[in-house]
Amino acid sequence: MTDQWITEQLHPYYRKSLRVETMLVDEHTGFQHLQLAQTEFFGKTLILDGIIQVTERDNMGYHEMITHVPMLAHDNPKTVLIVGAGDGGALQQVLHYPSVERAVVCELDRRVVEVCAEHFPDFGNPFANPRAELVIEDAFTYMQRAAGQFDVIISDTTDPIGPAEKLFSAEFYNLMAHALAPNGAIATQCEQMYFDASLIKTMLATAQSLFAHPAYYHSLVPTYPGGGIGFMYMSNVPWTNGLNKPYPVPMNYLNPEMHRAAFALPEFFRRALA
User: Fold this and answer.
1) Residue 156 annotated to the active site
2) Residue 183 CA neighbour count, 13 Å, CB half
3) Domain residue ranges of the chain, discontinuous segments joined by +
4) Span 4-55: which CATH code?
5) Active site residue: 87, 156, 159, 196, which one?
6) N or C: which end of the chain has fewer CB within 10 A?
């Protein structure tokens, strides 16, 4: 095997590398540089603009946590909006809920959907489900005409670099609140507590201005910077409403203990948010 590595440097002081067996896709889509690599340990890996997005081995720590925490908090989710998430992993989890009648994925880059549909068969081709709706559009534009339409919104975004910076803005959080139905619930990708405490503090303040029960929670994902990723839960319904409910399918990451523990914050980070 050729000793080939992909090295991600999202932060100027931190790098991580995965050993690659084969580079299966390597192209510029018109929106971004898209790569799909077969890696030695983590399996197939999606990389956008040099940043690892999803792998076969550890995606459950991301997809299950960003999806089921808000879905379980809502008593009867029928309409769901997923921002980004062209890989289909979050959509697969949403469609496990029989109550869901309409699940919209708003993705800017159609090639992400096409490439991931081919290379991540374990996601089960969720876009073929009749309840799923793919919208190729900027989420900012889409949500402006979607007032109060969605019981749950899942913002599965890339990191706040370049065009994606606007997805970590008060304007975007306000748009999500605008598109949310009464007593709805939101979960957004919200970066990592060691590297992004200042950004998280800012976004939490925005969430607190919009909702009665915002909360930051986190998950273990080895291929993300620092080995973990965080999320912002936002709702007028507390996240604890989702505890003690049956999960829709057997999970690979989430269980009742992990669900509760995800909202426990280490002391240094509690101080940073204060």
Assistant:
1) yes
2) 8
3) 4-55, 60-273
4) 2.30.140.10
5) 156
6) C
Each residue of 5-61: pLDDT tens digit?
A: 999 998 899 999 999 999 999 999 999 999 999 999 999 999 999 999 999 999 999
CB neighbour list of residue 215: distance below 8 Å, 6 or more residues apart = 232, 233, 239, 263
Query: 60-273, what's its fold?
Result: Rossmann fold (3.40.50)
Interval 173-218: pLDDT, tens: 999 999 999 999 999 999 999 999 999 999 999 999 999 999 999 9
* pTM: predicted TM-score of the whole model, two decimal places: 0.96
Q: Can you read off the two tokens belonging to residue 109?
A: 């880059």
For 157, the token pair is 């975004």
Q: Rounded to 5 degrees, what are φ and ψ at 218?
A: -150, 165
Alpha helices, DSSP H, located in the chain: 60-73, 89-94, 110-119, 139-144, 170-179, 197-210, 256-261, 267-273
Q: Which residue has the tokens 């534009």?
A: 141
Q: Which residues of 107-119 are buried (b: 16+ CB within 10 A; e: fewer)?
A: bbbebbbebbbeb
